[in-house]
Write a structure and sequence with these properties.
The protein is mainly β. It is 3% helix and 47% strand. The longest helix is centred in the last third of the chain and has 4 residues. The N and C termini lie far apart (39 Å).
């Protein structure tokens, strides 16, 4: 099992930007897909974005399309989530996850597609 570590969260005003990073702690890994999820207080964990580790193909939930960009740097074993035009409703704990099996866009949007998770990083957007 790989421990993933997220960083880059914080407090930002509406309309601002943040970039989250996620990398494995202490070892390299070879995922098939990497995902970002978020969980707001009192709500279920929801899918944000996913990226194929090999091809870089991406998929987003509708609410973040055009505002968020997921990318990866294979040489650094790191996946990023660039978040622009942030809204108060984006406030949540953001988690990255690694999956080791091929999945469809829908499949990769499900938490069950992922085996390893980070501890989460808080993103708070003030109005």
């Amino acid at each position: 099992q790989v421990q993933l570590v997220e960083s880059g969260g914080g407090l930002v005003q509406a309309g601002g930007s943040l970039r989250l990073s996620c990398a494995p702690s202490g070892r390299t890994f070879s995922p098939i897909t990497m995902g970002w999820f978020r969980q707001a207080p009192g709500k279920e964990r929801e899918f944000v974005a996913t990226i194929s580790w090999s091809t870089g193909r991406t998929y987003y939930t509708d609410s973040v399309k055009g505002r968020f960009t997921v990318s990866r740097d294979n040489t650094k074993n790191t996946v990023y989530l660039q978040m622009n035009s942030l809204k108060p409703e984006d406030t949540a704990v953001y988690y990255c996850a690694a999956g080791y099996y091929v999945c469809s866009d829908y499949g990769c949007s499900r938490p069950g597609a992922y085996n390893d998770w980070g501890q989460g990083t808080q993103v708070t957007v003030s109005s």
